[in-house]
């Protein structure tokens, strides 16, 4: 009934890429001289894939540097763009490096509401348990109704213990308890969920800082990873989100979710360019194994509609 | 971080004014700036192109060129055109005919459907006195049905009992049946988040629609959505048929261009704005508000609301009364500092103000310490009540004590006192002018005035100069007290 993950990611990628590929193809029917008009149209096509005006302008300028006033084909343009995007993304494509000697390696998962934090934790739990690590989950979203229950279901599905308190409990104290239990049970990896919060809500961001502080009291190096989950459909506001979360809680890496839709996460290029934060993995569905490693070349070629 | 459209266009037309004549290239430059501003705000490209074609003629008409501030004039034309496009006559829910009326909520994962469902149900119950039943058709996301049940308990709205294993279409039928039998006016059907490319799930929601025959089908969409909003909205419109849009997370700082894209591509009205996780965070759609945000002109409504939220009414009244008498002591200053901080500090407030993009940049360049306000609060807290009421008694030794107590230096204390003096002086002037009536509530009065004082108080290099700082002539008159007609709450 369901699509295989390969079909899924391919379906998703083709859908998104088609907008960009169609856009470029629409400008270059056959070959065309790369003049100012063509460049401007190309810039718009890049923007329409959420790369943002600044990144789009740079990519077009780069293209113009070598090819201005020359005959160029649609395919050449997309190849050139894909190469540029790959060069931007290559340095950030890094998986999470779980250190098994830490017992536990502590990962805090943050992000705005509805970005897919809890689902991503469920997927990470599955992935790492299958690799033979003992994983524990902490239901740190003590705010949203039924968020705790949601994580508990993921715990059952992946056979990982879930540390939880009732809704409304203090998230920092829950994190504290979870770390203690993880230490006692000699767990390899502790994944701590947090409530979604908009980055411009000062009070909620301060609350998150407190969670980080309290985690630091148990282990001065922790959280070892602070992963921000981003929805691929998000537009230019993602830049602001990463900037603020980065400042407030030192985000160490990103996960891009919902890439099985038609949004191709073009904003990721702008983010990588500006912040250089590692992109650990991507989410391509709601099932436990709908999580993939992030590879720069695949992402870039997918974005540009290249095989 | 975004340059506002006014700033951009200001540049284009400044150059133009020097020359005094308009060339075709100037028009194109202005249009390009508008285009980029809209794209930066996540308005979808085809929508932007349409829009530009429409406003081009009007925006560079004769009236604009004769204007002293053509840049502003163009912004106004664009703004009005945006409002025109965003607005619609049928922004209310149409619940006519025989009850129960079904309201179907659809959208992508994580767009805020469940929260919006509960908010709308609460509003219908409390404001429109409807008897509402909510049912969750989300059998996919773990604990989604529990979430709606809990929200129902919180808001006092009935929810359909959960039957484990039942599929969405059957739940919808059961809900409508329960609605009829229970004498409900409205049955709200909260569906699972689904991707518009997921054939199976889209077919499912179409089947739910056929079973429930909803009076309203609302697409719930995140205001942070990027260029993909067009594709999403169009797919849902084609496959399910929409009657309106609910735009969520408007309390964030996204420019929200997706709203325009979705409105344009579906032709359906935006009916509600979701503003916050609390159950009363739902507002009727206001086009001017969203238009202003898209253009980066600030969101004064949000500012006023934020002020109303954070400034305790009593406190504000107290200050207003004192101000009428022209009194303003250090306690008042401390309480205002605190209010500013609660609103996210200077930067937070500035982000919401129209036309301050340039100043914001200067602030960033001037190395203003965000902790400054905190330190000023500390200085005042280190004073005795007597000193706060009457700063005149603060002589050298007292200043040393205050500085030591607050971890600052005597110079810092002096700076603060000087600033307070300036503010107090201004309050006196305001009091003289404002004898006619009571001060406008909250920010409109004290907040607006002392913001400019804080900025121009000599503490911020490069900001206090004439025509540059907030105290200078650059800001619209709205600064000193927002224009009349803003809601008091």
UniProtKB/TrEMBL annotation, chain A:
<feature type="domain" description="AAA+ ATPase">
    <location>
        <begin position="103"/>
        <end position="305"/>
    </location>
</feature>
<feature type="domain" description="Signal recognition particle SRP54 helical bundle">
    <location>
        <begin position="9"/>
        <end position="89"/>
    </location>
</feature>
<feature type="binding site">
    <location>
        <begin position="257"/>
        <end position="260"/>
    </location>
    <ligand>
        <name>GTP</name>
    </ligand>
</feature>
<keyword id="KW-0963">Cytoplasm</keyword>
<dbReference type="Pfam" id="PF02881">
    <property type="entry name" value="SRP54_N"/>
</dbReference>
<dbReference type="GO" id="GO:0005737">
    <property type="term" value="C:cytoplasm"/>
</dbReference>
<keyword id="KW-0378">Hydrolase</keyword>
<dbReference type="GO" id="GO:0005047">
    <property type="term" value="F:signal recognition particle binding"/>
</dbReference>
<dbReference type="InterPro" id="IPR042101">
    <property type="entry name" value="SRP54_N_sf"/>
</dbReference>
<keyword id="KW-0472">Membrane</keyword>
<dbReference type="GO" id="GO:0005886">
    <property type="term" value="C:plasma membrane"/>
</dbReference>
<dbReference type="InterPro" id="IPR036225">
    <property type="entry name" value="SRP/SRP_N"/>
</dbReference>
<feature type="binding site">
    <location>
        <begin position="193"/>
        <end position="197"/>
    </location>
    <ligand>
        <name>GTP</name>
    </ligand>
</feature>
<dbReference type="InterPro" id="IPR027417">
    <property type="entry name" value="P-loop_NTPase"/>
</dbReference>
<dbReference type="GO" id="GO:0005525">
    <property type="term" value="F:GTP binding"/>
</dbReference>
<keyword id="KW-0342">GTP-binding</keyword>
<keyword id="KW-0675">Receptor</keyword>
<comment type="subunit">
    <text>Part of the signal recognition particle protein translocation system, which is composed of SRP and FtsY. SRP is a ribonucleoprotein composed of Ffh and a 4.5S RNA molecule.</text>
</comment>
<comment type="similarity">
    <text>Belongs to the GTP-binding SRP family. FtsY subfamily.</text>
</comment>
<comment type="function">
    <text>Involved in targeting and insertion of nascent membrane proteins into the cytoplasmic membrane. Acts as a receptor for the complex formed by the signal recognition particle (SRP) and the ribosome-nascent chain (RNC). Interaction with SRP-RNC leads to the transfer of the RNC complex to the Sec translocase for insertion into the membrane, the hydrolysis of GTP by both Ffh and FtsY, and the dissociation of the SRP-FtsY complex into the individual components.</text>
</comment>
<keyword id="KW-0547">Nucleotide-binding</keyword>
<dbReference type="Pfam" id="PF00448">
    <property type="entry name" value="SRP54"/>
</dbReference>
UniProtKB/TrEMBL annotation, chain B:
<keyword id="KW-0733">Signal recognition particle</keyword>
<dbReference type="InterPro" id="IPR000897">
    <property type="entry name" value="SRP54_GTPase_dom"/>
</dbReference>
<dbReference type="GO" id="GO:0005525">
    <property type="term" value="F:GTP binding"/>
</dbReference>
<keyword id="KW-0963">Cytoplasm</keyword>
<feature type="region of interest" description="Disordered">
    <location>
        <begin position="462"/>
        <end position="489"/>
    </location>
</feature>
<dbReference type="InterPro" id="IPR013822">
    <property type="entry name" value="Signal_recog_particl_SRP54_hlx"/>
</dbReference>
<feature type="binding site">
    <location>
        <begin position="107"/>
        <end position="114"/>
    </location>
    <ligand>
        <name>GTP</name>
    </ligand>
</feature>
<feature type="domain" description="SRP54-type proteins GTP-binding">
    <location>
        <begin position="269"/>
        <end position="282"/>
    </location>
</feature>
<dbReference type="InterPro" id="IPR003593">
    <property type="entry name" value="AAA+_ATPase"/>
</dbReference>
<comment type="subunit">
    <text>Part of the signal recognition particle protein translocation system, which is composed of SRP and FtsY. SRP is a ribonucleoprotein composed of Ffh and a 4.5S RNA molecule.</text>
</comment>
<dbReference type="InterPro" id="IPR004780">
    <property type="entry name" value="SRP"/>
</dbReference>
<dbReference type="Pfam" id="PF02881">
    <property type="entry name" value="SRP54_N"/>
</dbReference>
<dbReference type="GO" id="GO:0003924">
    <property type="term" value="F:GTPase activity"/>
</dbReference>
<keyword id="KW-0378">Hydrolase</keyword>
<comment type="function">
    <text>Involved in targeting and insertion of nascent membrane proteins into the cytoplasmic membrane. Binds to the hydrophobic signal sequence of the ribosome-nascent chain (RNC) as it emerges from the ribosomes. The SRP-RNC complex is then targeted to the cytoplasmic membrane where it interacts with the SRP receptor FtsY. Interaction with FtsY leads to the transfer of the RNC complex to the Sec translocase for insertion into the membrane, the hydrolysis of GTP by both Ffh and FtsY, and the dissociation of the SRP-FtsY complex into the individual components.</text>
</comment>
<feature type="binding site">
    <location>
        <begin position="248"/>
        <end position="251"/>
    </location>
    <ligand>
        <name>GTP</name>
    </ligand>
</feature>
<feature type="binding site">
    <location>
        <begin position="190"/>
        <end position="194"/>
    </location>
    <ligand>
        <name>GTP</name>
    </ligand>
</feature>
<keyword id="KW-0687">Ribonucleoprotein</keyword>
<dbReference type="Pfam" id="PF02978">
    <property type="entry name" value="SRP_SPB"/>
</dbReference>
<dbReference type="InterPro" id="IPR004125">
    <property type="entry name" value="Signal_recog_particle_SRP54_M"/>
</dbReference>
<comment type="similarity">
    <text>Belongs to the GTP-binding SRP family. SRP54 subfamily.</text>
</comment>
<dbReference type="InterPro" id="IPR027417">
    <property type="entry name" value="P-loop_NTPase"/>
</dbReference>
């Amino acid at each position: 009934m369901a699509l295989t993950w390969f079909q899924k990611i391919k379906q998703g990628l083709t859908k998104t890429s088609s907008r960009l590929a169609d856009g470029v193809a629409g400008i270059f029917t056959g070959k065309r001289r790369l003049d100012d008009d063509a460049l401007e149209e190309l810039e718009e096509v890049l923007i329409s894939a959420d790369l943002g005006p600044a990144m789009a302008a740079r990519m077009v300028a780069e293209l113009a540097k070598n090819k201005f006033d020359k005959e160029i084909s649609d395919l050449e343009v997309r190849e050139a763009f894909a190469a540029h995007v790959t060069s931007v993304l290559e340095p950030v494509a890094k998986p999470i490096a779980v250190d098994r000697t830490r017992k536990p390696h502590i990962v805090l998962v943050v992000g705005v509401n509805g970005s897919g934090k809890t689902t991503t934790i469920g997927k990470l739990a599955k992935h790492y348990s299958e690799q033979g690590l003992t994983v524990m989950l902490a239901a740190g979203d003590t705010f949203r109704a039924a968020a705790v229950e949601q994580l508990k279901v993921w715990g059952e599905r992946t056979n990982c213990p879930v540390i939880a308190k009732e809704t409304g409990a203090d998230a920092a104290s829950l994190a504290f308890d979870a770390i203690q239990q993880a230490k006692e049970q000699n767990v390899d990896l502790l994944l701590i969920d947090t409530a979604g919060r908009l980055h411009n809500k000062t009070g909620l961001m301060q609350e998150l800082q407190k969670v980080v502080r309290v985690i630091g009291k148990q282990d001065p190096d922790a959280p070892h990873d602070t992963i921000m989950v981003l929805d691929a459909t998000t537009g230019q506001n993602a830049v602001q989100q990463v900037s603020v979360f980065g400042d407030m809680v030192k985000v160490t890496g990103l996960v891009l979710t919902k890439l099985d839709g038609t949004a191709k996460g073009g904003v990721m290029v702008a983010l990588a360019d500006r912040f250089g934060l590692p992109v650990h993995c991507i989410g391509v569905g709601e099932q436990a194994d709908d999580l993939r490693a992030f590879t720069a070349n695949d992402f870039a070629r997918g974005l540009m509609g290249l095989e | 971080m975004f340059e506002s459209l006014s700033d951009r266009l200001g540049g284009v037309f400044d150059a133009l004014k020097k020359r005094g004549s308009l060339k075709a290239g100037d028009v194109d430059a202005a249009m390009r700036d508008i285009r980029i501003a809209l794209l930066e705000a996540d308005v979808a490209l085809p929508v932007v192109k349409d829009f530009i074609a429409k406003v081009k003629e009007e925006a560079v008409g004769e009236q604009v060129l004769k204007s002293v501030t053509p840049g502003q004039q163009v912004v106004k034309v664009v703004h009005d055109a945006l409002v025109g496009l965003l607005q619609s006559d049928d922004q209310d829910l149409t619940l006519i005919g025989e009850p129960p009326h079904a309201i179907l909520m659809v959208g992508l994962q994580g767009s805020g459907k469940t929260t919006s469902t509960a908010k709308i149900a609460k509003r219908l119950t409390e404001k429109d006195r409807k008897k509402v039943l909510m049912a969750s058709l989300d059998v996919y996301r773990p604990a989604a049905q529990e979430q709606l049940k809990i929200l129902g308990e919180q808001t006092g709205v009935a929810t359909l009992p959960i039957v484990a294993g039942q599929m969405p279409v059957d739940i919808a039928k059961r809900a409508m049946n329960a609605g009829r039998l229970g004498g409900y006016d409205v049955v709200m059907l909260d569906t699972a988040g689904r991707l518009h490319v997921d054939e199976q799930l889209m077919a499912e929601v179409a089947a739910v629609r056929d079973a429930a025959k909803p009076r309203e089908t609302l697409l719930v969409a995140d205001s942070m959505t990027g260029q993909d909003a067009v594709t999403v909205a169009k797919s849902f419109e084609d496959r399910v048929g929409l009657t309106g849009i609910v735009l969520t997370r408007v309390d964030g700082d996204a420019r929200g261009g997706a709203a325009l894209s979705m409105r344009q591509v579906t032709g359906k009205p935006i009916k509600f704005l979701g503003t916050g996780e609390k159950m009363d965070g739902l507002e009727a759609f206001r086009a001017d508000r969203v238009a202003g945000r898209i253009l980066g002109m600030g969101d004064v409504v949000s500012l006023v609301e934020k002020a109303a939220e954070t400034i305790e009414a009593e406190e504000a009244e107290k200050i207003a009364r004192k101000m009428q008498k022209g009194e303003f002591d250090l306690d008042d200053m401390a309480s205002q500092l605190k209010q500013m901080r609660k609103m996210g500090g200077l930067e937070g407030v500035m982000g919401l103000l129209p036309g301050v993009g340039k100043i914001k940049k200067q602030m960033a360049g001037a190395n203003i310490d965000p902790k400054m306000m905190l330190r000023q609060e500390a200085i005042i807290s280190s004073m005795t009540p007597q000193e706060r009421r009457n700063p005149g008694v603060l002589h050298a030794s007292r200043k040393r004590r205050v500085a030591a107590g607050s971890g600052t230096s005597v110079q810092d204390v002096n700076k603060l006192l000087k600033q307070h003096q300036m503010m107090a002086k201004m309050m006196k002037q305001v009091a003289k002018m404002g004898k006619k009536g009571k001060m406008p509530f909250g920010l409109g009065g004290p907040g607006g005035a002392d913001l400019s004082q804080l900025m121009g108080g000599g503490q911020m290099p490069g900001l206090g100069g004439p025509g540059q700082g907030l105290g200078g002539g650059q800001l619209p008159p709205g600064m000193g007290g927002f224009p009349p007609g803003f809601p008091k709450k």
